[in-house]
UniProtKB/TrEMBL annotation:
N-acetyltransferase domain residues: 6-147
Gene3D superfamilies xrefs: 3.40.630.30
Protein name per the record: ElaA protein
Organism listed in the record: [Bacillus] enclensis
Pfam families reported in the protein's UniProt record: Acetyltransf_10 (PF13673)
Matching CDD domains: NAT_SF
Record-linked InterPro entries: Acyl_CoA_acyltransferase, GNAT_dom
A GO MF term: acyltransferase activity, transferring groups other than amino-acyl groups
Length: 147
């Protein structure tokens, strides 16, 4: 199936439901981390995802500058458990950065990453800009990419 990128208002109710269902499965259930997953930022973001067999296989929320940080950002990044190990995470990040740089014309991207993903994001040029800190009990770091 194909990759899609849509503004919030372009998502069908079924697409939105599938995205929120999978995000909750990964970030709340899998990670055993109760938090407000629907945080109001979706309304002003782009939603990049790959559908396979009618389900969201991989997803990232692309936030224009000013939504989370003064820089553009990428968040809520996941590959559905059953689809991990197939290279989708790399394809997702490449497409996310291409969209932010190409379509949004942004040269700086700031992310909040789980600490264990430091090397993964580092392979795309992100550099750590904070010490490790706990967010909802999970070790995180902030990272920046300057093109």
């Amino acid at each position: 199936m194909s990759w899609k990128v849509k503004r919030f208002d372009e998502l069908t109710t079924r697409e939105l439901y599938s995205i929120l269902q999978e995000r909750t499965q990964v970030f709340v259930v899998e990670q055993e981390c109760p938090y407000l997953e629907v945080d109001g930022k979706d309304l002003n973001s782009y939603h990049l995802y790959k559908e396979e067999n009618g389900e969201v296989a991989a997803y990232a929320r692309l936030l224009p500058r000013g939504v989370s940080y003064k820089e553009a950002s990428i968040g809520r990044v996941f590959v559905k458990k059953e689809n991990r190990g197939r290279g989708l995470a790399g394809e997702l990040m490449t497409r996310s950065l291409n969209f932010i740089h190409g379509e949004l014309g942004e040269s700086e991207v700031k992310i909040q990453a789980q600490e264990y993903l430091r090397k993964f994001y580092g392979s795309y040029g992100f550099r750590v800009v904070t010490e490790t800190y706990l967010d909802d009990g999970i070790p995180h770091i902030d990272m920046m990419l300057r093109k």
